[in-house]
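Reproducibility note. Readers wishing to regenerate the assembly model reported in the main text can use the exact inputs given here. Chain order matters: entities are listed in the order in which they were concatenated for prediction.
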Amino acid sequence: MIVDYHVHLERAGIAPGNAMRFIGRALSAGVGEIALTEHAYNFVELAPFLQRPDYVARHGHGFRLDDYMGMVRSLSRELEDRGVPIKVRLGLEVDYVPESLEELAAALAALDLDLVIGSVHWIGDWGIDLGPDTWEGRDRAQACRDYFRLAAEAAASGVFSIIGHPDLVKIYGFLSGDECREALYEGGRQLVEAARETGTCLEVSSAGLRRPVGEIYPGLELLRMAHAAGVRITTASDAHEPEECGLGLDQAVSWARRAGYEDVATFSERRLTVRPLGA
Ligand SMILES: [Zn+2]
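Running the prediction on these inputs yields the following structure tokens for the assembly.
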């Protein structure tokens, strides 16, 4: 099965017609199961947990959870009734912010979701993927160590079904030095260990192919460690526009196979089911 488990409607808005533009693309890419995973900070109920009011003011969409959840559930039922060969799952992508983990976990547990992606985009007040210029003057190996400490914490919390783009910190291709490579390896090892202990999946994301690093998240070394540890994976495009939906999933599948994977995880009401990877 081809799975695209990380898709954002945000700029398009949460109307069913907009969701169908993404789903139509997914169908033509052969995707059999898709998860809509809107950013938590786009919802008025969850935005406070990000604790970055300036960012929310600039980038948040002010959606309401009821509108989103109702729309996705009814669209999912409608497609099933019409016999359209794709399953639509309901999810969220949530920034991992240690300070609000407890309240966030309680808020998420009260929602009837299929899955939750936990992602590290922030090291303290620094949004690591907000532009290469934000990296100027920073210690890159330290950034890498900080990133993976947070990612491993997120995995160890057991709050998330999946860790999104597990080595996002490589996004701008700045981690080629020896010290950074060592930090990538050691960080990856910690993340895999935490994911193994809690049964958290790692995401294999084609989004890295569209970024300066030009490589799938996570790197092959990390993914091989994950496979050896018995950690399960999902595959994802991280689409923010309909034309990105399903994009590069064939490469994500080959990447996962190179690491030894033959299965992909799917989620319904947070219960994991394993399917054969790829077409
Ligand atoms: Zn995303």
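We highlight two features of this model. The chain has one domain: 3-276. The longest strand covers residues 87-95.
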